[in-house]
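Incident log, structure service

09:12 report received: a user says their structure output differs between two submissions of the same chain.
09:20 pulled the input from the user's history:
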Amino acid sequence: MNDKTVIILGAGVGGLVAANQLRQLLPREHRIILIEKNPVHAFAPSFLWLMTGDRRPEGITQAVSRLVRPGIEVIHEEVRRIDLANRHIETTAGALNYDYLIVALGAHLAPEAIPGLAAEAHSFFTFDGAGKLHQALEHFQGGKIAIVVCSLPYKCPGAPHEGAMLIADFFQRRGQRKDVGIQLITPEPQPMPVAGPELGAAVKQMLEAKGISFHPLHSLTSVAAQAGELIFAGKESIRYDLLIAIPPHRAPQVVQDAALTDGSGWIPADRATLKTNHENVYAIGDITSISIPGRWKPDVPMKLPKAGVFAHAQAEVVAHRIASEIKGLSPTAEFCGAGYCMLEAGEGLAGFAFGDFFAEGAPRLELRNLGRAWHIGKVLFEKWWLAPLGIRRTVLGSALSIGARILKIPVNI
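09:34 re-ran on a clean worker, output below:
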């Protein structure tokens, strides 16, 4: 068995899981190299809690070096070029060759794609943005808050709805709720349409119960900052006093330059194996484009949502497939399309939904009512994910596994 080199680009959820799984599955003579420009990992699901002041910045970050197994080479440099023909990666510090490549570079935000947006809007979709938005909320004395989804697709389909409900709860706790109008605006026909009409209707009811107005089928074209107005295609403008945006998402330029993307702007990958059209090259997580059955029109395919739960599962599949090939075995691991979401609603409550996103026809999604258990589960997962690896595998891991079994939810840690 010749020594092999596996390079993983990106240390988000998918990249970290893939690297750790591969190191566990393969003997030490095989190199596992993780390339990530940022030495500090920020846990994106907690950005909403940073926005509301329920977390401090240092409480939702961890050094990448403390989240990987011994024997993984971590290189904190930026990827400059992906040479698929020669199996070659160029970084700001030098070049590396690979036998297998896993692209897990995620989705980048592109607020500059909409005129007026970058200079005017806050966002809870970045670590720095969530911290700045917390300060803006602290100083907001009243008026209209617009939370706008700028374009599709975007990461974490539940996040805009969670954000709206948590902001409503923030002002409720401060005794200012009656002074603040909250609007959620999106080009989608209903909340979380990829999960089907039933779940979308349930989320809409949650928003209405919080006094949040929902505006579907609104495609933002520009922001008129001086007038404080959002301009939409074929719709009346909407005024705001504080603008919060989920900006357009794009694949990183280095991936586009390597011709890995297709007409969708993302990397097409086999939905079961995560293989790309290039030999020994896999793509996982937010950077992928994976078709699933239509939910509103069965004959019109949709795309698998961009969410950490899928990146996690895909990373495990890819790690097992690569390890099997290196060991001379036939790979059998496949991604099944199962996913779940804990939807924060404020007041220490959360909802929960899980199901099969590859199911034909009506989605096989199970809905659970709002409860404190789901919120506690999300907190436990946050602590588990950010814990140094040794602690994660012992006390916190056992607690989370027991909780998942009690609640009968398919959480694989």
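09:41 both user submissions now match this output. Likely a transient worker issue. Closing.
09:42 reviewer note: The mean pLDDT is 92. The first strand starts at residue 5 and ends at 9.
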